[in-house]
Amino acid sequence: MSLDDWQTRLESHFQELRSRRTLIAGNKPIFGLEHGLSPSNLEQLEREVRTHVSSSSPSDKHSLVWIVYASELGYRYEGAEYWQTYEEKTPGWNQWWNAWGERYWLRDCFLNFHRRFGGAKPSGQWAAHFNLICWPITHAILPRDLQLQLARILYDLRHYFSAELFGSQERFGQLIAAKSIDTTSRFQKLVEEPLLVGQIASALLLQGKGASASLILDSTLERISKDLDRERRAREWLQGAQRYAQQREQFRGLSLPKSDGDSKGLGSREHARKEVEALAIEPSLALRPISSSSWQVLLEIPDLSHLLIKFPFLRSALLGSRCFVAGSSGRPLARGQLLHGSQKVILHKWPAPDEVLLRFEQQPIELDYLLRTECLLRPGPSWLFKISSDGFAYEIRNQVVRPGNQYVLLNSCTAFRAGPWSTPVEIACAGVDAARLDVPPVLNEAEIGYLLSLGLHQAKSIYVWPAGLAAVDWDGEGHAEWLSSDLPCIGIRADYQIEQISLSLEGIPGDQLVITPNESGSTCFVSLPSLSVGTHRLVVSAQAPSTIADDLCGQLDLVIREPHKWKPGENSRGPLTIRVDPNMPTMEDLWEGRASIEIYGPDKREARSTISLYGKMSSLPTIKKALPPLKLPISSSNWQENFLKHFLRVPGVQEKYDLAHVCRIEITAEELGFFSLDCEREFTPLRWVTRREGASYLLKLIDDTGAPVSIKVDRYEYSRPDIPVALEDVGLVQGYKVPDSGGMYLARSGSEYQAIMVPPTSRDLRALQLNPQLVLRGRIPEQIADVLSLLELWSGARVNGGLLSLYFQTRILNALQRQIFGLIAGEKWVNAERSFPQQLGEQNVAALKVAVFSHAHHSGFAAALANLYHELTCSKPQEITSRLCGLARKFLILPSSLYREASINECDSTPPEQYISAEWICEFALRLASRPETIRLWAGENLTAGISRLLESPVLARGAHFLILCIDRLAIHHKLTTGRLYPNWEWE
Question: What is the CATH number of domain 460-565?
Answer without folding.
Answer: 2.60.40.10
